[in-house]
From TrEMBL:
Domain of life: Bacteria
Taxonomy of the source species: Bacteria, Bacillati, Actinomycetota, Actinomycetes, Kitasatosporales
InterPro entries: Acyl_CoA_acyltransferase (IPR016181), GNAT_dom (IPR000182)
GO MF entries: acyltransferase activity, transferring groups other than amino-acyl groups
Protein name as catalogued: GNAT family N-acetyltransferase
Provenance organism: Streptomyces colonosanans
Length: 289
């Protein structure tokens, strides 16, 4: 791997990263939604908000300083990439290996992550495995479910903390993905800004939840969406998702986004019926020694 022709710069200083790369990230808010929302969370809640170890940030710029790509990692979460050429991905892998970085997984645009995974394999001897295929959707014409299931939506409050924390933990069990954040801390953070909506049956029993990130650069991303297994198939997830989608539109969001697991045809079909349209394919690759 030859990193000489690609000048990747790294920092642990969030403000330096945003000062250098903020305009680049805001230039395509949908495609850069993950890095925008992660950076916003770190800026608002502190650098330890996503985990105990310090995050790091990187950018690739032309000779005139124009940023062309960015990368960040908030351990224990995956390395997150924006779109890269094969050469830039190869150089990034070389630089990270040279710096002794441990990379358990990487996520981003599907072709970019595949190129990085191949480069990481070549340079480190690690074995790469495609762990998840994802699709990024953006809301087109909003089409709420008709009829909606019996019940109504409400924003989760402090009294819902225990339920929200449990459902966050169970969501990660169901998708076979470790919960990177402490469930109690995650619930506290989301509830504090009104970032969780519950769907309740007419008797007031919560049966589903849908979250949304704060608006950054005009975009809001819906995540996570969860219904306990015994209550699935009754339209509760669709109703909760429609509620947070409507709230995002009412708040003035220019783009409402969400990711799906392409292995789950039910959720992909649901979101398309609500009016979400495919934007780009993403992927996660995991690495093992």
């Amino acid at each position: 791997m030859d990193s000489g022709t690609y000048d990747w710069r790294f920092t642990g200083d969030l403000e330096e990263f945003l000062g250098r790369a903020g305009s680049f990230l805001r230039s395509q808010p949908a495609l850069h939604t993950v890095q925008l929302t992660v950076a916003d969370k770190l800026r608002t809640e502190g650098l330890s908000a996503m985990g105990g170890k310090p995050p790091y940030f990187g950018w690739l710029a032309d000779e005139d300083g124009t940023v062309r790509a960015t990368v960040l990692r908030t351990p224990p979460y995956q390395l997150n990439l924006t779109s890269l050429t094969a050469g830039a991905a190869d150089a990034l892998a070389a630089r990270l290996a040279l710096d002794g970085r441990v990379i358990p997984s990487a996520g981003g645009p599907a072709e970019t992550v595949a190129a990085f995974a191949a480069a990481w394999e070549r340079g480190t001897g690690a074995a790469a495995r495609l762990a998840m295929r994802q699709r990024l959707y953006r809301l087109g014409t909003f089409t709420p479910p008709e009829p909606a299931p019996p019940g109504s939506a409400r924003v989760a409050g402090a009294d819902d903390h225990g339920l929200v924390a449990r459902w966050y933990a169970q969501f990660h069990v169901d998708v076979e993905e470790p919960a990177g954040q402490d469930p109690d801390r995650w619930a506290e953070s989301r509830i504090a800004y009104g970032g969780i909506t519950l769907w309740e049956t007419p008797d007031g029993t919560p049966v589903a939840m849908a979250g949304a990130t704060p608006e950054v650069a005009g975009q809001v991303r819906v995540a996570p969406v969860f219904t306990p297994a015994p209550l699935r198939g009754r339209g509760y997830a669709g109703a909760a998702t429609a509620s947070v989608t409507r709230a995002a539109l009412d708040s003035g969001a220019e783009e409402v986004l969400l990711f799906t697991d392409l292995a789950n045809p039910t959720s992909n079909g649901l979101y398309q019926r609500l009016g979400y349209e495919a934007v780009a394919d993403y992927a996660v690759h995991e690495f093992s020694a």
